[in-house]
Design goal:
Length: 94
């Protein structure tokens, strides 16, 4: 039983050139390997986003729903971000 399928795809010239350049540089043996690696990376990113949503975003949303007093106002968020930004800027100067 065959474990692969053949596809015919159309890419914009810029993407096609990038695929060919990867093969020409010796990073991959074939154009198919470039595409397969790109799809593996896309699938890994999708899994990472799903895990982040499941493990961090959903629990945070549920905690906020259970205790709305934990929420920050827009002004509080801006103030915290500004403080962090200032801390990073002063840390770079030293």
């Amino acid at each position: 039983m065959r474990t692969t399928q053949q596809f015919s795809i159309t890419l914009p010239n810029e993407m096609a050139d990038a695929v060919k350049a990867k093969v020409a540089a010796g990073e991959y043996a074939t154009e198919s390997e470039v595409i397969r690696d790109g799809l593996r990376t896309l699938l890994a990113r999708d899994r990472a986003v799903e895990a982040w949503l499941r493990e961090q975003v959903v629990p945070a949303a549920l905690a906020l729903k259970a205790d709305p007093a934990r929420a920050l106002s827009v002004d509080q968020v801006r103030e915290r971000l500004a403080t962090r930004r200032q801390g990073r800027t002063s840390a770079k100067k030293t």
